[in-house]
Amino acid sequence: MAGIALGALVMVPEPADAADCRDGLERLSTAVKAGSRDEALAQLVPIDAACPAEVATKARRAYGAMLLRAVDDMSARGAGDDRIRPLVEQAAEHGRLWDAWWRLADLDLRAGRYAAADRAYHQAIDSHVDQVGGTCGGAERLQHLRARAEEAYLLANREGQGGGLRAWPDTPWPFRCGHWRKQAPSLLFRFGSAALEPAARRDLDAIAAKLRAFEKPLVRIEGHTDFRGSDSYNLALSQRRAAAVARHLMATGVAVRFEVVGRGKRAPRSIKGPDVYPQDAIDRLNRRVEVSFW
């Protein structure tokens, strides 16, 4: 139950509403143990009203963890996404658990709702930092979440779903623990093209704004392609893509040192659980330029 002991929920301070708080927590504890989801949900509002904020938050997480256990049981019995989604939504909305937002984002991603997936991944990232912390201990998990958020963002823009999405997450944390290097969101290209798309230009302007905070950073610009076509064709195409990004950054007037390389199709994007995407989405994610700086 997300590491929350039910017994700990009834040990609360003694405010004026302490009796109401204890009663609500006891009813919640009984409902959770019995697996009564509706009864447990009904206790959250009175608990919010009567209990200290920290206790109410733990109660919500206990409720969310109960729902996720039910989701795990249903999934083990072969339930499809349409059946488990309502419980995952409840665990995210009312339980406010970072892993519930993660599961909801994965459901949206599989359904091709890329903008919704991007928003849910960012909720998972923000909630993870709040609940677990943004230190190196959770860096691998956070890196996976950010990679998925970036993929959802890129595919949402490609599908015309990207209005209002944020390319750079607001929550700070060490992108690569133990290393100072920063990596920007990838920039996608159309098949066979080295022309910058409007979304890529907007993201490059945001990258340039961040680069101005550093004293002559070294910027590595690395072009990539999908697997279609010969090695020589794709190597040249990836170099043209990287050069187009370098030209745009130079045109912004930012003072940087460049390292511009093309990798062709030799370094495909690392996608965990590639079965979540159709092949055309994987191809789109591989037609990219990656910008890192330190």
TrEMBL record:
Keyword RNA-binding: no
Superkingdom of the organism of origin: Bacteria
SUPFAM superfamilies: OmpA-like
Location in or out of the cell: Cell outer membrane
PROSITE patterns per UniProt: OMPA_2
GO annotations of cellular component type: cell outer membrane
Xref: Pfam families: OmpA
UniProt keyword annotation of Membrane present: yes
Coiled-coil ranges (or none): none
UniProt keyword annotations, A-Z: Cell outer membrane, Membrane
Gene3D superfamilies attached to this UniProt entry: OmpA-like domain (3.30.1330.60)
Residues in OmpA-like domain copies: 176-294
Protein name from the UniProt record: OmpA-like domain-containing protein
Species the sequence originates in: Prosthecodimorpha hirschii
